[in-house]
Amino acid sequence: MRILHRTTALTFLAALCVTHAAVAETTPIAHYHLKSDEGAIRDTAAPAVLESFAKGGPALKSHGEPKVMSNGPAIRSLAYTGSIKFEDANLCYAAPVNLVRGDNWVVEAWAYATQVNDKGLHTVLANGNGGNGFLIVQSGDQWQLFIGGVGGTNLGKVTANTWTHLAIVRDRGITSAWIDGKKVANQLPVGGGGANNFSLGASAPGKESFNGWIAEARVSTFKPGQFAGATDFLVDTAQAKILRDADRALVAKLITGLATAPGVEKVDAFAERAYDKDWLVAAAKTPASVQVIPGEDNQPAQIMLTNGLVSRTFLVTDGNLGCISLRRADKDIEFVRAIKPEARVSLNGQWVDIGGLVGALDQAFITPDWFYRLQSSGKSFRLAGMKVGPCVKPYEWKPKCNAPIDIPWPALGRRVTFEFAPPENNAALAGLHIDLHYEIYDGIPVMMKTFTLRNQSSKEVVVTSFEGEHLAVQPTNSKMMHVESDYSFALANFRETSSGLGIHAAGSRAPFKEYYLGGGTTRFKRDPNWGSMATLNPAEDIFVRDIENALLISTPPTGPNWTVKPGESFDAFRTFTILNDTTEDERRFLAQRRFYKTLAPQSNEHLFEVHAPSSHHIKHLGPLLDQMHEIGFEQLQAPEHPGSFNYADASPGNIAAMKTVCDYAKQYDIRVGAYQLMMASQGWGSRQDNFNCIDPASKAPGSAFGQSACGASAWADMYFTNMWKVIDGAGMRAFKPDGPFHGDCCAATDHPHHKGLEECA
């Protein structure tokens, strides 16, 4: 599926702008406020019945004896001058009818809270009740939408002794919340309907009563797509228009910044420049590029990353960003099924979305016809900017050990960083910023994705877990995707059915199976939001290889549960996606090989080597080195075994003995490499030393290979210092770690460098 390419792009973008500029026509079905002569004298009795100023609206009967307050919102003073005071628990106006049903409606009210932090729920307006329907309430210091069976959603801070306009709007199936004419929340889980009750001042007499004044309430309907907050609310329409124009100006400023960022190609239509040869046979020469279509009036925009083999396209609208296409450009294969958050992060145990757009009518496909509906959820981190530059090398590397000298490092291509700011209505996220990084590389159908969380607040934050990729994919085409991360070690990627570690898999029968058998960071899951997907029976599901597993997640098997202090940052692991053009094993594995040679350039190194016997004495290794020279071997691997090389012993005698071997090898230009088991397969110290991994099931020392030291225990403070001292002092010229790859877990809570199981890996 092509998404807005070439001549179609501007057509759809122009249509978007026209749709947003539509003029609304609302029809009130119920409207309540005091008559112009009823609000002049405060503390006089309020009317026993509030008649509707909209024809056909039900009358609201008073419960208790509410009083008049000679105060109302100034902008509404031509319609009325007073309001109704609610100060006793048994006061309210109600009718046994549900006024809000179906779709395309707006409910609004003017309220004045007399307490800035009123504990509990205090109802301004109820349609139904707290069990079946929705309430507009004050809860503590927050205005809130409380939904029966769901709970409350904070909308914004309460300002005491100030008139506030509160509104809930449902337009074509999407519900949003507004305060003083400004949208503050979107995609709220509420529709029409509920119990037969419509009330002001409480959800029922004596229940969840409001402390303050209510001046006006109205329920209206409108034609689909014909609502405009700047003109249709009971607010200062001129001020609302100023707010709307200010919002549009902010979006325009954002998109202007995207289109003019250094390294960006500003275009009228995308050019994928699809490669027309077999990239595995003839190297693709199309350089990676970042293209931006700003859109009419700089409102919606689109961004595409492409290299002639693959492309990823994003829609920017309503101040946020969502992925609308991920394609194998040279083969016209689309991989994206629906728009999801760009990433998800659990902060202090609460999940938040990074980017994403909501409002699509289905999760089975994407069509440009729905773009006008798409909005930011209001709860997610919002797009704040973009930077484009060359790819970044994750570690230092120079060609050596027979690797070709012309391997580019870092790999050639483009790196795009989308900068996200926290949602304004969530004080707990203030000061936290997330940078989402993409890389696209010249000549290979591969993209990388990762993120950085920057803590610019004054409080610590814990990254409990994260999903660095969260992508709704086409079920059949997902079989052509190869996804992996650089968070890679044996236990994290272990599967009972496909790993040599199976002989050691005691964990497969343990209560901590998810840790022991992580199954890798890549998960294809069923999408709970894809309601139109036909459910297959188990036999069919196995036969077609889990066709419903069409939600790609890249997440650590456990944790990380990492604490980020003020001023610090957290870098997630990198997720790489190869978009293959077939499910044929040979082509997929050739693509994977090219991927490693490009992005893990050390895999191009190769030496003809010998693994030394269990000795480090020159009288044994000297003759071996002589033979290696005669045959043409290039490296001696010096293993760490009892009676052999000891990298924890930094004594002068041990270093001198090892240096003798290294010096002897240098005459033949043979490298001696430090072959390291480190912590794996061996215990260190006594139980009292507390150096070793603690098995989460038994709570005693133990790991996959019997026993391993914990790299986050005090053992690490000793071992690594001594290890490098030995390697440098002996003059070793290579380092080959074979031990840490196990990824043994540790449930200790008293090791100095980790708090427990979830952050130990």
Automatic annotation (TrEMBL):
InterPro entries: ConA-like_dom_sf
Signal peptide: 1-24
Xref: Pfam families: Laminin_G_3
Organism (species): Anatilimnocola aggregata
Keywords: Signal
SUPFAM superfamilies named among the record's database cross-references: Concanavalin A-like lectins/glucanases (SSF49899)
UniProt-recorded name of the protein: LamG-like jellyroll fold domain-containing protein
